[in-house]
Design goal:
alpha/beta; 13% strand; disordered N terminus
Length: 336
C-alpha cells in the first residue's frame, strides 16, 4: 500500500522525496542541488525531479544558505522613495531576469526613521546588494568586507556615469524637444514630495544646462501637487509673467497630468496655450486627451541590466556597460 501523500499544510522534506522516489536522501540531495561528478543515472535524476515537483517540494532557504555559504536573495536597496510606475517597471523586470538564474529579489525602500540599514542586510545575508542611492560609500564598503557583493547602478554618459548624470540627461531631452518645437521660454513643474529630490534636482539641472546651451533663459520653476488646484496656481503664475512661457517640462507624467488638469480648470488647452512634456511614459499618459508627450527612461532595460550585472559578478565576470543616452527617448504625442 503506497504511503499517504503529505498534508498540504506541512513542508515537504527531502526525506519524503527520497521515500516516494525509492532512493536515498543522499541521492535526492545530489540531484536537487545539481552536485557534479556523481554517477547517478538520468532515469534516477528524472524520477527524483518528477517526484519533487509532484509533492511540491521546495528547498529550505536557510539550510541551502548554510550549505552554499550565501543565500539566493538579491537585496535591492533604495532610499524612502515613493514606488511609482517607473520604479515598479524596473523592479518587475529585475525580478523576472534574476529568477531565470535562481535568484530572488527583495526590495527595501529604507525609511529615514527606521533602524540602521545594516540590521537588514545582516539578517538577510544576501548574495548581493544593489545599492540604489541608499548606502554611503563607507556603508557599502562595510557590506563588502562581510563578503557580500555590492553593485551600484552605472550609466554610460559622456559627462559621467552616475545616477545624477542619467537624471540630468532626462531634463536635457525635455528642453531639447520643446525648443525644437519652437518654444523659447519654459516653465518647470517640480513635485511637492521632498523624497523625490534625488530625481527632481538633477532633472532640473539638466533642463537648465540645455537652456544655457540653446541660448534660452532658465526655466521658471513652480512646485506642483498632484491636484488641479495646486497645478492651477502654477499655471496662473506662468501666465502672469511678462515674458510669455509657452512650454512646460514636468518632473514626471503624474505631475504633467496634474498640469493638464490645472489648465483645463482655467479653460486652457495643450499645446495651444502651453506645450507639456512629462517623464516615464506611464500608460495613463497615452490615454488622456490630448495624449501626453513624454520621455521614456528605459526602466525595463535598466532592470535587465542590473540583473545581468548581478549574475555576472556572482559568476566572477565583469558587469556589462550601463545604459547610455540612447535609453532616454522622447515619445511624441499631442501635448507638444
Amino acid at each position: 500500500m503506497p504511503a499517504p501523500e503529505p498534508r498540504e499544510t506541512a513542508r515537504v522534506t527531502s526525506a519524503e522525496v527520497a521515500r516516494h522516489s525509492g532512493v536515498s536522501r543522499t541521492t535526492v540531495s545530489y540531484v536537487l542541488n545539481g552536485a557534479p561528478n556523481q554517477s547517478i543515472s538520468e532515469a534516477t535524476k528524472r524520477r527524483v525531479l518528477d517526484t519533487a515537483e509532484r509533492l511540491g517540494y521546495t528547498p529550505y532557504a536557510a539550510a541551502r544558505a548554510l550549505r552554499s555559504g550565501r543565500s539566493d536573495v538579491v537585496l535591492f536597496l533604495t532610499p524612502e522613495w515613493p514606488i511609482g510606475a517607473a520604479i515598479a517597471r524596473l523592479v518587475e523586470d529585475l525580478t523576472l531576469a534574476l529568477a531565470t538564474a535562481g535568484l530572488t529579489l527583495v526590495m527595501h525602500a529604507h525609511p529615514r526613521s527606521a533602524r540602521p540599514i545594516a540590521d537588514l542586510w545582516k539578517a538577510i545575508n544576501p548574495a548581493a546588494v544593489i545599492n540604489h542611492q541608499a548606502l554611503s560609500e563607507d556603508e557599502a564598503n562595510v557590506v563588502r568586507r562581510s563578503g557580500i557583493t555590492v553593485l551600484t547602478p552605472a550609466f554610460a554618459f559622456a559627462g559621467g556615469g552616475t545616477f545624477a548624470d542619467f537624471q540630468s540627461g532626462i531634463g536635457h531631452r525635455q528642453v531639447e524637444h520643446l525648443a525644437a518645437a519652437g518654444h523659447r521660454r519654459l516653465g518647470f513643474a517640480l513635485p511637492d514630495d521632498d523624497r523625490l529630490a534625488a530625481f527632481a534636482q538633477p532633472r532640473l539641472n539638466g533642463a537648465r544646462q540645455a537652456c544655457a546651451e540653446l541660448g534660452l533663459s532658465e526655466p521658471v520653476t513652480r512646485v506642483t501637487a498632484l491636484n488641479a488646484v495646486s497645478s492651477g496656481r502654477a499655471v496662473a503664475y506662468w501666465r502672469r509673467l511678462k515674458s510669455e512661457i509657452t512650454g512646460i517640462c514636468a518632473y514626471n507624467d503624474e505631475v504633467a497630468l496634474a498640469v493638464l488638469a490645472g489648465m483645463r480648470a482655467q479653460g486652457l488647452n495643450a499645446p495651444g496655450d502651453f506645450a507639456v512634456i512629462g517623464v516615464d511614459d506611464i500608460p495613463a499618459g497615452a490615454l488622456t486627451s490630448p495624449a501626453l508627450t513624454t520621455v521614456a527612461t528605459g526602466m525595463s532595460e535598466l532592470g535587465k541590466y542590473l540583473a545581468i550585472s548581478v549574475i555576472n559578478v556572482l559568476e566572477g565576470a565583469a558587469p556589462p556597460p550601463g545604459p547610455g543616452p540612447e535609453a532616454i527617448q522622447v515619445i511624441s504625442r499631442d501635448t507638444v
